[in-house]
């Protein structure tokens, strides 16, 4: 079964199915998987910091990297995932409008992600970030495989 993760959303599951998110430009796509428990989740966060709109962050923490990333990890821990086994991959964080994009949202999303992971002793196993392309990401909850599609090409992350 395929579950679509929209902008500002997160979904998690166990033992099968597919999580898919589309149109990762400057947004962060974070895929986390525990291969023993076969639990995984996909976050599609739009903005780096929740302090710009605390009320929105309270109703939808997945819109922001700084609130969505911890919520994704908490969900997976609740489902039996263990930190030491988690495979963490990132995609997106690009500059779809080019290098002259004024707000550098993609760069800032990536910086906040790296800070959160570093503070918690978690490393990225793989990433497909930056550039001006849009990406679609598929996370297979049976195997943990992550497939990134862009410009008609697919590759495993």
Secondary-structure element string: EEEEEHHEHEEEE
Distance between the termini: 21 Å
Calculate Rg over CA atoms.
Answer: 14 Å
Structural domain tally = 1
Look up the CATH topology: 60s Ribosomal Protein L30, Chain: A
The amount of helix comes to 10-25%
Structural class: alpha+beta
Q: Total number of helical segments?
A: 3
Descriptive overview:
This protein has 157 residues and is α+β, with helices and mostly antiparallel strands. The protein has a single domain, classed as 2-Layer Sandwich (60s Ribosomal Protein L30, Chain: A), CATH 3.30.1330. The chain has three helices and ten strands, in the order E-E-E-E-E-H-H-E-H-E-E-E-E. The protein has helices spanning 54-59, 65-78, 105-119; strands at 2-4, 9-14, 18-24, 28-34, 39-45, 87-92, 126-129, 135-140, 146-150, 153-156. A five-stranded mixed beta sheet has the order 1-3-8-9-10, with no helix packed on it. Strand 6, helix 3 (105-119) and strand 7 (126-129) form a beta-alpha-beta unit. Helix 2 packs across helix 3. The protein is globular, with a radius of gyration of 14 Å.
């Amino acid at each position: 079964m395929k579950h679509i993760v929209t902008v500002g959303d997160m979904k998690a599951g166990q033992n099968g199915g597919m999580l898919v998110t589309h149109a990762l430009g400057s947004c962060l796509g974070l895929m986390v998987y525990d291969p023993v428990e076969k639990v995984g989740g996909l976050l599609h966060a739009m903005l780096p910091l929740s302090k710009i709109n605390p009320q929105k962050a309270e109703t939808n923490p997945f819109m922001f990297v700084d609130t969505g990333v911890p919520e994704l990890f908490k969900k997976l821990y609740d489902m039996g995932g263990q930190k030491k086994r988690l495979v963490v991959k990132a995609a997106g964080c690009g500059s779809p409008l080019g290098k002259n994009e004024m707000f550098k949202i993609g760069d800032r999303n990536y910086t906040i992600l790296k800070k959160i992971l570093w503070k918690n002793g978690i490393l990225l196993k793989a990433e497909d970030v930056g550039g001006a392309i849009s990406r679609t990401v598929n996370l297979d909850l049976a195997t943990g495989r992550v497939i990134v599609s862009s410009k008609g090409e697919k590759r495993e992350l």
